Amino acid sequence: MTAPDSTSRNPLAHPGLDRAADERLIPGLLDAAKTDAASRVLVIVGDSAPLAATESLLWLAPADTPDGAEWAFLGRDDDGAALLAAVFASQDDELFEAPAGWAGLRTVGALLSPRDAGAFVEALSLGRWLIDAAFCPACGTLALLGDAGWSRRCPNCGRQHFPRTDPAVIVAITSADDPDLLLLGSNALWGADRFSCFAGFVEAGESLEAAVRREVAEESGVDVGTVLYRGSQAWPYPRSLMVGFLAQSRDDAAARADGDEIAAIRWFTRDEIGRALAGFGDVVLPGRASIAHRLIADWHAERV
């Protein structure tokens, strides 16, 4: 597999900010940062964050952050200031008014600066664990936060727990016979006009390459030959690491939807993909924040 540097084109793959992971073991780090007026806080409610403008997040001072949050240390800004996450569960009403409103990562991820995009995906990924995994999975006791929000330790059985990341593969399929054809699928849960790459979770004891071949065969009926690695990105829906590939079909005629998860599949011409990427035609493609969009756009631009 070839591993290109795709971070410049994939907004959620950029390093984003200095996570300063070595500082997480410093006793009292989080409490000290919460009382430092120079620190900046990104508030997450559900999967949304406040916007200062259309293309920038709103960062608060710790003193201006509403009470009741789960807190975590995200890292350091270029000037050395601590960057923190204050996470809240989903709620119907806005927690506070933001100058440009509130938005989810899917909506604004591709518009943000590398720092803001990296901070958003980090805070959302970690925040979902902070909200959803408060109790020890071994004995059910409320676990205590540690490592500045990056671990929990059970006071009853002593087990330590960390945020979970589930690897998943996502694949765009090229034709065995025509370099200007790309196979995409429409999920049964989507509208009939929405198409994307094929994706699925890596199973226990399975390599990424094996997962690519299995998922493609299950969802599209296609046996693939060449498999090229194209990049990765965090995708906190709910806690995935999406690993992107381009794979070539061995037999285009074998393509068929599984009729369960995938309602329809279709071979698209390069011109059809180009029109869809430009927002024309009758096909809706993945949003720009997703690696699926990047796989399709790179194929269209012949970045292979």
Describe this structure in words.
The chain has helices at residues 29-34, 105-108, 114-132, 208-220, 270-277, 291-300, and strands spanning 40-45, 48-53, 56-57, 70-76, 82-88, 102-104, 144-146, 151-153, 160-161, 166-174, 181-187, 198-201, 224-235, 240-249, 262-269. Helices cover 20% and strands 29% of the residues. By secondary structure, it is of the alpha+beta class. A hairpin with a 4-residue loop joins strand 13 and strand 14 (240-249). The N and C termini lie close together (12 Å). The chain contains 6 helices and 15 strands.
- Low-pLDDT parts are none
Binned, the helix content reads 10-25%
What is the typical, i.e. mean, pLDDT? 94
Q: Give the tally of β-strands.
A: 15
Secondary-structure-derived class: alpha+beta
What string, H for helix and E for strand, traces the elements in order? HEEEEEEHHEEEEEEHEEEHH
**How is the main sheet built?**
6 strands, mixed
| First-residue to last-residue Cα separation | 12 Å
Binned strand content: 25-35%
Short synopsis of the structure:
20% of the residues lie in helices and 29% in strands. The protein is of the alpha+beta class and 304 residues long. It starts with 28 loop residues before the first helix and ends with a helix.
